[in-house]
Amino acid sequence: MFMKPNLRAFDRLVRFLLGAFLIFAALVLFTHPLARVLATIAGIYALLECLTSSCPLYARLGMKSSADVLKSESLYLLGLLGVQGVLAYEWWNAGWGKVSSPDFVSGIAQTLGFFASKNPFPWYKDFLTGVAIPNAQAFAYTVEWSQVAIALVLAGSICGYLCVKTAAARRWVLILCALALLGGALMNANFYLAAGWTGPGTKGSNMVMFWSEMVLSYIWLSALLSRKKA
């Protein structure tokens, strides 16, 4: 499973801290059984990489030994995929929380009514009262399952981009990833317009996610167009 040691002391320290935090989160922070299992597995894997000083992903990206250094392109790629992983987690947490709770669908009409009550955008208030609220149940199912789908595509595209080898497969990964990011940005824009007025936390988090998704979608679409020209 593990290869020749290729991690520096700093990389091992990062993995130790990450593994310890994930196991702590599994034991203390997370309540959902699946989240606990996944966090435990990821934490143990990070600790194993720390103990063995070996990272298969780094080896795949060209870092065969601890004396090697990741290329700037590979380092930037890991950073972008890390941000995308955070977005995937956020969408999964939001979507699955709604899917697993019957209160979301049953109370969506009241929630939308509250969002419309003091909404500062007249045209969006008209959308809420004229379209969303009359079709509240369908709107609720669309929102919750769209969030789950976005999370799965974003997470799956990370694995796909790192694992697939053919140019055609990578193009499809980039296309699906960009579509999920643009869909997420559209949802964040709607959440901002609907509920941004309720508090700075809701307003700020949706703005951060929106612009992160727009930047990532631009990068992946640019990469897709560059591959087509090549």
From TrEMBL:
Keywords: Membrane, Transmembrane, Transmembrane helix
InterPro entries: YgaP-like_TM
Domain of life, source organism: Bacteria
Transmembrane segments: 12-31, 37-63, 75-92, 145-164, 171-195, 207-225
Domain Inner membrane protein YgaP-like transmembrane: 3-65
Name of protein: Inner membrane protein YgaP-like transmembrane domain-containing protein
Organism: Candidatus Uhrbacteria bacterium RIFCSPHIGHO2_02_FULL_57_19
